[in-house]
Hints:
cell membrane, UPF0702_alpha/beta_dom_sf, 12% strand, transmembrane helix, membrane, transmembrane
Amino acid sequence: MEIVIRAAIAFVVLWLVTRAAGRSTLGELSSFELVLFVVLGDLVQQGITMEDRSLTGNLLAVLTMISMAVLLAYFNVLWPKLGKLTQGRPIVLIRDGQLDRKALHHERIGLDELSMLARQAGIEEYSSIRLAILEANGKVSFFTHEAETTS
């Protein structure tokens, strides 16, 4: 039973850490960050199982983590307000060409990064952006004034 409790605690801590890391950070991991997260997972596993090398202990820890992830997804569907808390809400970064510097600062997105994302979307100037939204998954959606008139 101690493995289940340790796995549940590790799940909550890892969820908090990934939320604190920020959406844009998690949206695109570098190779190093990916390796770092894998190593972190191994270190957490050792802490959960107290270096228990038994198949039963490892399977119990994995089953607990998967069960908690499934339960969280189920609860997010059942209670949409919980989903907004656990998954985050979309955040407006640009409205009618005007940057929301407070939102950019809060989400730790620099102007260089935002400009790069806009260029990748085929947008040259902020003034042509009707709306730029940072989605819960870390991606930025752009809606331009031109797209509004062609619809």
